[in-house]
Design a protein that fits this description.
- With about 130 residues, the chain is mostly helical.
- It folds into 2 domains: about 90 residues, Orthogonal Bundle (Arc Repressor Mutant, subunit A), CATH 1.10.10; about 30 residues.
- Helices cover about 60% and strands about 10% of the residues.
- α1 runs antiparallel to α2.
Length: about 130
Amino acid sequence: MKINYNNTSTTMSPAVIVDIIFPSQTKYKEITLAILNFFIEKGQIVTGRSEIEVNSIVTELEKIGYNRYTVYKVMREYLVPMGIINWKKFEGSIQLSTKFGNALRRFSLSWNNLVERIEKGKQPRIT
């Protein structure tokens, strides 16, 4: 992840957010944006339901030219561990998650605490 402080705001578009998460992996960026757009489009159709079947997303992305294996890889190896989506494997569905944002918030607090300790002349824990 590569973050330019001057390019961040509290009202970034999904494209800008995904560009920060995947600065050099174009395919992963495209797949993630397609998944987010799928939630945005389908979310209006299935109001009150935040889950979407994994198979329907993969099938739709295959129709527009993405490799099935790559779509699963992006979800399994990046979006789930990062906390961007929750994958309910037994139900075969995914949903958007707030875990990613919460992790960034904790990271931010930790960084600010570290800077504060250094500025106050306190020895920060290295381990």
